[in-house]
Design goal:
heterodimer; A: Rossmann fold; 2 domains; 7-stranded mixed beta sheet; 32% helix; disordered C terminus; B: mainly alpha; 2 strands; globular
Chain lengths: 507, 361
């Protein structure tokens, strides 16, 4: 039986008003892949931050290989052999790979040695990466490799990975799993945080499930169904989105040869995108992040005005209209980034309700805002989409990511749009809330709305979309009915594994 | 160890309490300073904060000065604060103030010596338009070419000052002024004079306009969609674009409004307290108003109070120099302390102070 690598004993951390972790104990063994599961706000992040030395526990202790382990800062954790790959990359676009790796190290070796080490590690673990490439030109999957290699260069005993697959194509996920399995065979333990239960079933040896800061269950993922794990996470059963039965009606949105230069140095240009979206239909656009999703959203929302004749709503050309006029025509959008784009961080939920609903919900009368009405609308959204918040007066930034996501998607759905375009509608949202958001989108479609979902979560697209297309370097693939598609086919539509065909894990 | 911990939301109580705390701290440390230079701290503080309003002998003169000085500060600061809320940094209110005064005075003097009740309103409109037009220069350059409004508006102050020098010794010079630079005295021409509305209060039309501007700004920012769009632009520019706010229109509106209000302030000054266009007409109100806007937390009511407080320290400072013979530099130091503490204790609004062992966070 392998030895315990890290033992957590009664870890407790309270923040004003919230107990983030309450008496959490479990062990991570050497050479195991251990899943950490839980809803948003269940305390996963706090727990991981304590292990990585970012937060100090109020009570409880940690033991690393039999010795007391009290990291006071991340560098102490790294010295003890604990490394972490964050969900959001901390890389500089304008620097090359080796420079970025050096920035994250305590004592970086000489640039030439470092480049050699990066090549060695990347070959050993099947993570092809050229140390001299500029990070701004890398795909999301390649950026993640930079982060992973940065960790591996420090020879960690425990590698913490926070939602690592959310930015990868299916082929890239397979390659990442190969890498992780190889690390495991060498005795490295991996603490794996993910919402994708099927992945956890395929990869992890053990799973610890947190709910409201407490450890509620452990299981062996390969012997447990995804549904059972999801129910353990939320503590009750929930309804999967019901399949809908609608036949597509008239064309509500037509995009005709939409071409647009990249907005900035590292953006993606849109290249001749054309599609039609019909009433009652859910269209899904997949693709790896950075292939034109954000740019397409900006063009559809009206934040960037496009050439005349490229965007048609119900037969009328809206290409030159701004967001306000498009909303008035029943054409609503929800961008990916919640804080700063879909919502203003320091403004209250009531104020954020006015952000897009001012005209359609008649919250503004002759230029004056009816705050009572706005508050009522915000309360409706909160109630209908189960947004957990003390009230509408709370600033948007005080909400957890998943709750704010429910609010910003709910704000658009509640306005009963004719056309709704959403980008990453369930990003970082727990299983139950994601199911609720998908159901809301399907309900909207069954009432005759046309829905376009842009997402990197393929399971989500396969679950709710009627037709599927992939964005790759600003181009849209041919649209195919979802029923006829296999995962491999989708991967190829998305641009394959981004030059990963040659990659293989060295034996 | 003292640590700062970010609050989840700005504290409402501290937002109100920090200015009071800052004034108290300024009194304590200012008192120490006055003590060190050999003046009684209590007497110095009393002379600055109390005597301008309540001294039996001087208050009669200095009390009206409070509104005379606070009026233009508030009027300009209100305009600036609306732009600052949107992240538009108009530093050139002094220039807009000067150009407003020149345009307004010029419009009036063109009709001299006609007598009509319409002349002063005409001058007010001309002053507002002048300030507006001067502010449109940085606004249009920013919208069309993406120039930095901070630099352009600031440099235009120096252009305005030179224009002022030019017109006061040329175009607008008093023909009966024995060749001295400076225009006719507008406060002595009954059609243009901006007199006290209530005797011995300092309350003239400009002060009244400032109070109306406070109410207008309050309603704009809290009730109107335009004010909401301005706040949204400042809080989250991308969210504002997503909402449908046009950045160009916001820039034109904010700079235009600030320019018009500053221009009006200049006009009320030239027809009232200053009396004439002269080379030294520019008194720094446009720059001090930036401080007033920030002291007032960019909030209309805050600006009203900050303007009065700022005016008080100016008048009290002059009084202290006169009565106690303290050096002028010590008064500036005292005012600097007030600013320092106001901005310094501001940290308490967003952060909580924790004493005790450091915790890695």
């Amino acid at each position: 039986m392998p030895d315990d690598l890290l033992r957590l004993d009664g870890l407790t951390k309270a923040y004003p008003g919230v107990v983030a972790n309450d008496d959490v104990s479990f062990d991570i063994r050497e050479g195991e892949i251990h899943a950490l599961l839980g809803e948003n706000g269940a305390g996963k992040s706090t727990l991981v931050k304590m292990i990585y030395g970012l937060v100090k526990p109020d009570r409880g202790s940690m033991t690393l290989r039999g010795k007391p382990y009290t990291p006071s800062e991340p560098s102490a954790a790294r010295q003890a052999g604990v490394a972490m790959v964050f969900q959001h990359f901390s890389l500089f676009d304008a620097l090359d790979v080796a420079e970025n790796v050096a920035l994250g190290m305590e004592n970086p070796p000489k640039p030439r040695d470092l480049a050699r080490q990066i090549r060695e590690v990347s070959e050993t673990y099947g993570l092809p990466l050229d140390p001299s490439r500029t990070v701004g030109t890398l795909s999301a999957g390649e950026r993640q490799r930079v982060e992973i290699i940065r960790c591996l260069l420090q020879d960690p005993k425990l590698l913490i990975m926070d939602e690592p697959t959310s930015v990868l194509t299916p082929q890239e996920v397979e390659i990442l799993f190969e890498t992780l399995r190889k690390l495991k065979s060498e005795g490295t333990a991996i603490l794996y945080i993910s919402h994708k239960l099927e992945e956890i079933r395929a990869l992890c040896d053990h799973a610890t499930i947190l709910r409201l800061g407490k450890k509620v269950a452990t299981c062996t993922p390969s012997e447990t169904t995804a549904r059972a794990m999801a129910e353990m996470m939320i503590g009750s059963s929930f309804a999967s989105p019901a399949a809908k039965h609608t036949t597509p009606g008239e064309v509500l949105l037509r995009v005709d040869n939409l071409t647009m230069p990249a907005p900035g140095a590292f953006g993606t240009p849109l290249r001749g995108i054309s599609f039609e979206l019909r009433s009652g239909e859910v269209l899904g656009f997949g693709g790896v992040a950075g292939n034109g999703q954000d740019e397409l959203l900006l063009a559809l929302s009206g934040e960037r005005i496009t050439k005349r004749g490229t965007i048609w709503v119900k037969g009328a050309d809206v290409s030159r209209d701004g967001p306000v006029d498009r909303r008035a025509a029943g054409f609503l959008t929800a961008p990916e980034e919640r804080l700063g784009h879909a919502a203003a961080p320091n403004m209250s939920l009531t104020e954020n309700a006015v952000l897009t609903a001012g005209r359609r919900q008649r919250l503004v009368n002759k230029g004056f805002i009816n705050w009572k009405r706005a508050d009522g609308f915000a309360q409706d959204v909160i109630k209908r989409f189960d947004v957990r918040t003390p009230g509408t007066h709370v600033a948007a930034r005080a909400l957890s990511g998943g709750n704010l996501q429910k609010f910003v998607i709910g704000r658009e759905v509640a306005q009963n749009p004719d056309i709704l375009v959403v980008n990453q509608p369930t990003w970082g949202v727990d299983a139950a809330a994601a199911a609720a958001i998908r159901q809301a989108l399907l309900d909207l479609a069954s009432k005759g709305a046309a829905i376009l979902v842009v997402s990197q979560d393929l399971d989500e697209l396969l679950e709710i979309a009627d037709r599927f297309g992939a964005l790759n370097e600003g181009r849209l693939s041919a649209l195919k009915p979802v029923a006829d598609l296999s995962i491999d086919e989708i991967g190829l539509m998305m641009g394959g594994a981004h030059d990963m065909e040659v990659a293989h894990v060295a034996e | 160890m003292i640590r700062l911990e970010k609050r989840p939301q700005p504290s409402k109580a501290w937002t109100v309490a920090t200015p009071i705390l800052a004034v108290v701290l300024t009194m304590i440390f200012g008192g120490i300073m006055f003590g060190l230079i050999g003046t009684s701290p209590v007497e110095a503080i009393r002379t600055i904060f109390w005597d301008p309003l309540f001294h039996p002998q001087f208050a009669g003169f200095s009390r009206p000065q409070l509104l005379v000085k606070a009026g233009p500060l508030i009027l300009i600061a209100i305009g600036l604060s609306i732009g600052f809320r949107a992240g538009i940094w108009n530093i050139g209110a002094e220039g807009q103030y000067i150009i407003g005064a020149i345009c307004g005075a010029g419009a009036g003097l063109a009709l001299y010596p006609m007598e009509s009740a319409l002349i002063l309103p005409l001058m007010v409109v001309a002053g507002a338009l002048g300030g507006w037009a001067w502010a449109m220069i940085p606004a249009l350059l920013k919208v069309k070419f993406g120039t930095n409004e901070i630099l352009v508006s600031l440099m235009l102050v120096y252009v305005a000052e030179n224009l002022l020098a030019s017109v006061s010794s040329g175009l607008l010079r008093n023909p009966e002024g024995m060749g001295f630079p400076g225009s006719r005295n507008l406060s002595q021409w009954s059609s243009s004079q901006n007199l006290e509305l209530i005797p011995n209060t300092g309350m003239h039309l400009g002060v009244l306009t400032a109070f109306i501007a406070v109410i207008f700004a309050y309603v704009l920012l809290t009730r109107h969609i335009q004010g909401y769009n301005i706040r949204l632009t400042g809080e989250a520019p991308r969210a504002a674009k997503f909402s449908g706010v046009s950045p160009a229109r916001t820039i034109l509106f904010c700079l235009g409004l600030a320019g018009a209000l500053a221009g009006m302030a200049g006009l009320f000054e030239v027809t009232g307290p200053a009396g004439q266009i002269s080379i030294d007409f520019g008194s720094g109100y446009g720059f001090t108003a930036i401080i007033v806007a920030f002291l007032g937390r960019l909030h209309p009511v805050g600006i009203l109070l900050a303007g009065l407080l700022m005016a008080l320290t100016y008048i009290g400072g002059e009084l202290a120099q006169l009565m106690l013979g303290v050096p002028g530099a010590s008064i500036q130091l005292f005012q600097g302390m007030l600013l320092f503490f106001l901005l310094g204790v501001d940290v308490l609004t967003n952060y909580r102070v924790r004493f005790g062992a450091a915790e890695v966070a």
